[in-house]
Amino acid sequence: MKLAPLVLVSLSLAFAGAFAQQPSAPAPAAATPAQRVVSPEVHADRQVTFRLGAPKATEVVLTGEFMRGSKPLVKDERGIWSVTVGPLEPEIYHYNFTVDGLKIVDPANAELKTGSTAQTLQSSLTVRGDAPAFYDGRAVPHGEIHTHWYDSKSLKTQRRLTVYVPPGYEADTAARLPVLYLLHGANADETAWYRLGRANLILDNLLAEGKIKPFLVVMPFAYGMPPGTPRGERDNTTMFGVDLTEDVIPFIESRYRVKADREHRALMGLSMGGGIALRLGPNRLLDLFAYSGGFSSGLGRPEDFPRDYAELIADPSKSNGKIRLLWIGCGREDGAFKASKALSEFLTTNNIKHTFRETDGAHTWIVWRRYLHEVAPQLFR
Amino acid sequence: MKLAPLVLVSLSLAFAGAFAQQPSAPAPAAATPAQRVVSPEVHADRQVTFRLGAPKATEVVLTGEFMRGSKPLVKDERGIWSVTVGPLEPEIYHYNFTVDGLKIVDPANAELKTGSTAQTLQSSLTVRGDAPAFYDGRAVPHGEIHTHWYDSKSLKTQRRLTVYVPPGYEADTAARLPVLYLLHGANADETAWYRLGRANLILDNLLAEGKIKPFLVVMPFAYGMPPGTPRGERDNTTMFGVDLTEDVIPFIESRYRVKADREHRALMGLSMGGGIALRLGPNRLLDLFAYSGGFSSGLGRPEDFPRDYAELIADPSKSNGKIRLLWIGCGREDGAFKASKALSEFLTTNNIKHTFRETDGAHTWIVWRRYLHEVAPQLFR
């Protein structure tokens, strides 16, 4: 069974089941020792061994979402570095090696976290439990992922967006569905929520369990200016906000059979995208979005909240009558926690109804997948 | 303009135009010097500088599709290694660094060649010319990319496939279109032909130029057994072949408005997928595929050709009456060249009409994008 761990992490998620039934085979020959090693190798007890072939290195260190701090690897006589951690809880984690001070992805691992900047580059580790997780592909009806190029008149370009189309949409040509607009974080792109967030599989599973009714999920590219641009006269929320409301939403409502009113639109996001969703959503409560939410949100300064939410707090009973959901979630180990808590307190002080979910966790996809799984059943009820 | 090169390579291809108009900004602070450097930086004269922050390394070497062999980087007093190459022809290239014997991707570059195994991991370099290339996104109508999960009864799993749906398909609900089934190579997956091969943009551009009529492109996952499995009683062509003919084609013909006959089906592929296409296609000439083609194909042994093509060569005039295209292309610098030439000679000897295209180039996407661009106008005429 020497190839099994390599195959399991290397193949696209939906194939693991089939290939686990295939006979094992020796790993194919490769150019360098770094690619000949198996890494990561998940053992039956969910301990995980990481390996790196680097005979000339003097120090190799592992960092990852499954532990605090770092852990050194140890070199054997062939120049293969290794370390074993765990047992780990079933989950999808990201990690890096640092080789003599140089932070790299695992050269033996095909599964990567990529995005719109290199700062997000990490290797992926999937630890499976005895039963499929809520984000795993199961033998249930699956939706489709559509990638579109659309004209952004506001940004004067053509750009991409991704749509999750739930199972049944194509067959039921009379149905019109609600839409969740779901935004990624900094350094990510319009593919992040389905590649890393597994939004499609999470919703496929919730649908199969009868916990949600079908809706579309639209995942745009939430940058209206280049990543890393400092906030100036034009900020990203404003720039992207125009693209979203004047280009993305009209495009979606012309291409798909959707319900085009505020009661059937939600705007949510994570990190940078959570900041956009929690500023834009409540401010377009009356005409665009009855549902808003932010996960580990990148919020502005609390002293600006009275200005940012002037209209929302002006007449709380009017606003509360329109709010179907205003959801703020953050992990206690997350640098964004304080700001999320401050926003919740500000809303409480101003009598605006909302949900503040304080959970375990840091600034990772582990938290965001769970939040989507928790929030989705609260939408469009 | 310090951020520009970083931004250009970092962002999804369609956004470069918009962001090039944005004001420049300092690169955001990052954790390690490796991520603070700009790499690769394409200069106005199309020379390219590669950089790596690795103060403790003793040797750093560059390899890439833009040159033969390798080139050493030189370290400056801050521990930043660099080398400048070119000027390079406008093209999309892949490259690696090797740091003290360890082959890695460029930690400062968000654009990667990824696949179903780690052996394919490389960084991407896009060198733009004065005019858009045939594979660049242009201001023309764009098709959609659909990702499906389908039930493979033959492989007893659910697996993914990708479909290019040309512009106009959704609007013209009376049209039924032909289908090109297009296969990836070893270590790649069902996303390779659009992410790396730009199949969608190449066809969008050909359509806009009036050089092709619309057709669907179906890009399945062309592994029927795990990557690297040695050929035994069951080989990948057989295993995947059953999935293709019994699961993929029926799925496509039930989901899309397509013409379901041999005159409107083509089967093509590259490398491993070219080997599958050139074995399966001509052998299902009578019932499934009037068009077959292989790019840099991974073919079997020439001594097996008489057995592999027994039916095709039995009655050349009958076969030739059915062949609309049998296309074999390979670059002279490609290790697969000899086998492609041998197949062409075998077909010539047996009076089977076909096209053999002998071109410049090696075993790279540079060649395969050009072949698709050349072959597409010969389909479904």
Kindly, what is the distance between the CA atoms of the first and last residues of chain A, rounded to a whole number of angstroms?
Answer: 48 Å
Put simply, the count of helices of chain A is 12
**Order of adjacent strands in the largest pleated sheet of chain A:** 11-12-14-13-15-16-17-18
Shape of chain A: globular
Q: What are the segments of chain A in which pLDDT stays under 50 over at least 5 consecutive residues?
A: 1-31
Strand content of chain A: 15-25%
Radius of gyration of chain A: 22 Å
H/E topology pattern of chain A: HHHEEEEEEEEEEEEEHHEHEHEHHHEHEH
What is the typical, i.e. mean, pLDDT of chain A? 90
Which class of secondary structure composition applies to the elements of chain A? alpha/beta
For the largest interface in this structure, which chains are involved and how many residues does each contribute?
A: A-B, 81 and 81 residues
Query: What is the percent of helical residues of chain A?
Result: 25-40%
Give a quick account of the main beta sheet of chain A: strands, pairing sense, barrel closure.
8 strands, mixed
Number of strands of chain A: 18
Q: Note the quaternary state here.
A: homodimer
Key terms for this structure?
homodimer, 381 residues, alpha/beta
Overview of this protein structure:
- 2 copies of one chain form a homodimer.
- An 8-stranded mixed sheet of chain A has the order 11-12-14-13-15-16-17-18, sandwiched between helices. In chain A, strands 3, 4, 7, 8, 9 and 10 form a 6-stranded antiparallel sheet that branches.
- With 381 residues, chain A is an alpha/beta fold.
- Chain A starts with a helix and ends in a 6-residue tail after the last helix.
- In chain A, β11 and β12 (157-165) form a beta hairpin.
- Chain A has helices at residues 4-10, 16-20, 33-36, 192-195, 199-208, 236-255, 272-283, 305-308, 310-314, 316-322, 337-349, 365-375, and strands at residues 41-42, 48-53, 60-64, 70-72, 74-75, 80-85, 91-99, 102-104, 112-113, 122-127, 144-152, 157-165, 179-183, 216-220, 265-270, 291-295, 325-331, 355-359.
- The model of chain A is unreliable at 1-31 (pLDDT under 50).
- At the A-B interface, α1, α2, α3, β8 and β11 of A face α1, α2, α3, β8 and β11 of B.
- β11 of chain A pairs antiparallel with β11 (144-152) of chain B.
